[in-house]
Design a protein that fits this description.
The structure is a single chain. The chain has 213 residues and is of the alpha/beta class. The protein folds into two domains: 55 residues; 132 residues, RlpA-like domain (Barwin-like endoglucanases), CATH 2.40.40. The chain has six helices and six strands. Strands 1-5-2-4-3-6 form a six-stranded mixed barrel. Strand 3 and strand 4 form a beta hairpin. It starts with a helix and ends in an 11-residue tail after the last helix.
């Protein structure tokens, strides 16, 4: 009984202190609860309007856009003219036996040389010769999207890159093998972590990189 009374007293005291602080703050600032509500609502509306305007102008990749739609949007609105280019032979690969010699269940299945899991999205994992494009290098490949060098391969020597796709059918249907001029967006330092790759994937800006000086 004594414990219950003590708890009630402390709760009542806390409520009284909170009420006193609230009243004092309102008197000092002149703000009411409605003012806070209206201010927060306005801030939210402004934020949403900015996002909508940016999206409508092509500055942000549209939410829920497919990879093809996102790449088309980037190619329409982004300007890569200030970035250096390099002509390469681009092929496609998968995580499967036909490309890596590994099957599902293998401890290294689906993992790139850098340790980052393979991924096909607006920013995809690709393989390259690290003497040409160090691990962590970001390329823009017209028709494919951003490729982040995360992998290597015994057959990937010199001016060759290997673009990741989920299936062999996707490789043949969407790419095959072709020469292409790629844009060197950001040169890597030889390493790539999952957090770094995730940060790339979360970048929704169509033209989210600063050209080199």
């Amino acid at each position: 009984m004594h414990l219950t009374t003590t708890v009630l007293r402390r709760t009542l005291l806390a409520l009284l202190v909170s009420a006193a602080l609230y009243v004092t703050y309102n008197q000092l600032t002149g703000l009411t609860h409605n003012d806070w509500y209206e201010s927060n609502t306005l801030d939210t509306q402004i934020h949403e309007q900015v996002i909508q305007e940016a999206s409508s102008e092509g500055l942000l990749i549209k939410e829920n856009a497919s990879v093809r739609e996102a790449v088309a949007q980037i190619e329409e609105f982004a300007n890569f003219d200030a970035f250096p280019t390099r002509r390469v032979m681009a092929t496609g690969y998968t995580a499967g036996m036909e490309s890596t010699g590994k099957e599902p269940g293998h401890p290294a299945y689906g993992l790139t040389y850098s340790g980052v899991p393979v991924s096909r999205d607006v920013y995809s994992t690709i393989a390259a010769d690290p003497d040409v494009f160090p691990i962590g290098t970001v390329l823009f490949i017209p028709g494919y999207g951003y490729g982040v060098v995360a992998d290597t391969g015994s057959a990937i020597q010199g001016e060759i890159i290997d673009l990741y796709y989920d299936t062999v059918e996707d490789v043949f249907a969407e790419w095959g093998k072709k020469e292409v001029d790629v844009y060197i967006i950001q040169e890597g330092n030889g390493q790539l972590s999952e957090d770094e790759f995730r940060a790339f994937q979360e970048n929704r800006a169509v033209d989210g990189f600063t050209p080199p000086v």
